[in-house]
Design a protein that fits this description.
Number of domains: 2
Structural class: alpha+beta
CATH topology of the largest domain: FAD/NAD(P)-binding domain
CATH class of the largest domain: Alpha Beta
Helix content: 25-40%
Strand content: 15-25%
Low-confidence stretches: 1-5
Number of strands: 22
CATH architecture of the largest domain: 3-Layer(bba) Sandwich
Shape: globular
Distance between the termini: 25 Å
Mean pLDDT: 93
Length: 545
């Protein structure tokens, strides 16, 4: 159809998570006109549902606080952790990521976004060359009342001002002094916000709200909800617009500079999960992430990579047809617990990074289910964040996904594993707890493991004897936070064909792309960090085109 004034912008952004918003931020910073289109009725994507961390080595906040880091150490660490690179995780793209972190943070701050460091949070492999503690940042708690009517359509937001550095301490709020103090601070922070008439949010909800405030509110950037992209418009070999369906009517929005696909991965597309990963998937990601933008680009010859991988992690098994019941992070690192397979045997370090545990679950095939088992001291000492989800524990118990027992033999019968094996596993991990060394899987050896451990438990804060009941067992599955695979892009987020040539006018960032992180997860926020940086890089390149 002919273009009207409202049908043409410099930049069109498909999606509304970190990759999308950082592109919009870059566009407005460059003085470009920009519009966002979102397929669902809510904005924020996986970012708004997430922990909200951004893994940004050698970032400006670290420099201001005198935290030692360098470009060289960041590059050394990423090359070591990522290992053999694919086209998406080439050294060239890794260096572009590291070199653009400062631009992203400074630009975001210039537009009113506020960040804080997570100084205690380690890289996921901090003992490797170049590894550090404290490279992640997050958005400051945000009063969503500032968003006006946009606050009513934000995805997955929980109105509590929690921060990343709260989470690891709140788990032991009534078992350690530091946990108790942090719990009290959290309560006073929450009450303080309410007394001042604010609706404070934290984590991913805060980060997404900061983005929205900087763009939708302050710059009046248009965002069309319930407006799915249904195809890409081309002239010759160049992408010049997006076909959308708005209020039941199809139309074309044209782009003078470029189209950014920042619409998440395909975690909620069970057909694709089966095709590429041989699983139907237990995702904690956005139900609107179906991979359609990836498909549109493939129709133009775009290359894809890492389609077989995801941001895996152990999750509580769903008790209905919904998503996974709860993504497990710090709960796994605490002492007095273990995870076993269908034979009643441990198979991995329970405290390892969630993607490593997920990979181990997917690769471990001895038949049967996986169970997270907690013993009496665990059940008494630690606040189980997953247990507060309304109806979750009741639903799991009714479906045979949660069991309680007074002793190990009784528990083995209930979860269907050999009692002798389970007793042997309990005896073995209890012995490791008393010596402080996990000789099988090295739980507690890494600073990352110990971050979520209990420092009052010695000699290993991640190991505790499991010979005291009563016991709980929770069925867990290999869940995920989203998929890792997607479109192959260059250093400026331009989408590439199989032969390495550029599809002019088409850009992509975030989980719509094959990640720069390869098959691994270097540190907290390794999804949102690159999404934000490469979204901005894409906008900078469009401004020059």
């Amino acid at each position: 159809m002919p273009a009207t004034q409202n049908d043409r912008y410099d930049v069109i952004v498909v999606g509304s998570g970190a990759a999308a918003f950082s592109t919009v931020l870059g566009a407005v910073d460059e003085g470009l006109s920009v519009i966002m289109v979102e397929s669902t009725e809510q904005w924020g994507g996986n970012t708004s549902m997430s922990g909200g961390g951004l893994w940004l080595p050698n970032n400006p906040l670290m420099k201001r606080e005198g935290a030692a880091d360098s470009r060289e150490e960041a590059l050394q660490y990423m090359l070591k952790t990522i290992g053999e690179p694919g086209p998406a995780s080439s050294q060239e793209r890794i260096e572009a990521y590291i070199d653009s972190i400062e631009d992203f943070v400074i630009t975001a701050e210039r537009h009113g976004m506020e960040f804080m460091r997570d100084p205690d949070y380690p890289d996921y492999y901090p003992e490797l060359p170049g590894g550090k503690i404290g490279r992640a940042i997050e958005g400051m708690n945000f009063d969503v009342k500032k968003l006006g009517e946009w606050k009513d359509t934000q995805r997955g937001v929980v109105p509590i001002p929690v921060r990343t550095n709260d989470v690891w301490l709140l788990g032991r709020a009534w078992s350690t002094p530091a946990g108790f103090i942090r719990g009290a601070q959290f309560v006073f922070r929450t009450i303080g916000g309410l007394v001042r008439g604010k609706t404070l949010v934290g984590l991913g909800g805060a980060l997404a709200a900061h983005f929205a405030n900087a763009t939708l509110v302050k710059k009046n950037v248009p965002l069309l909800l319930n407006t799915p992209a249904i195809g890409l418009e081309t002239e010759g070999d160049r992408v010049v617009g997006v076909r959308v369906k708005e209020n039941g009517r199809e139309r074309v929005i044209y782009a003078n500079k470029g189209v950014m696909l920042g619409a998440g991965g395909f975690e909620s597309n069970q057909e694709w999960r089966k095709k590429y990963q041989n699983v139907t998937g237990y995702t904690s990601g956005n139900p609107g992430n179906l991979g359609r933008p990836i498909e549109f680009a493939q129709e133009l010859g775009a290359a894809v990579d890492y389609m077989d991988d995801a941001w895996w992690g152990g999750s509580l098994a769903p008790f209905d047809d919904g998503p996974a019941g709860g993504f497990l992070v710090g709960e796994r690192a605490l002492p007095y617990m273990m995870i076993v397979d269908g034979q009643g045997k441990r198979f991995a370090n329970e405290a390892e990074s969630y993607i490593d545990l997920g990979h181990h679950m997917n690769d471990h095939d001895r038949g049967g289910d996986f169970w997270m088992i907690t013993s009496g001291p665990y059940n008494k000492r630690y606040f189980r964040t997953f247990s507060i989800q309304p109806g979750l524990m009741k639903g799991m118990a009714e479906k045979g996904l949660k069991h309680s027992a007074k002793n190990i033999d009784e528990l083995a019968g209930k979860i269907g594993v050999p009692a002798a094996n389970l007793r042997e596993t309990v005896d073995r991990i209890s012995g490791f707890a008393r010596t402080g060394i996990d000789q099988d899987f090295h739980k507690g050896d890494s600073a990352y493991d110990r971050y979520y451990g209990d420092p009052t438990v010695r000699p290993n804060p991640c190991l505790g004897p499991m010979d005291k009941g009563p016991y709980n067992a929770y069925k867990i599955v290999a869940g995920d936070l989203g998929t890792k695979g997607g479109l192959v892009t260059d250093v400026d987020s331009r989408v590439l064909r199989e032969d390495g040539t550029v599809i002019e006018g088409l850009y992509a960032a975030g989980n719509t792309t094959a990640t720069v992180m390869g098959h691994t997860y270097p540190g907290p926020g390794s999804t949102i960090g690159p999404a934000s940086v490469f979204g901005l890089r894409g906008a900078r390149h469009m401004a020059k085109s």
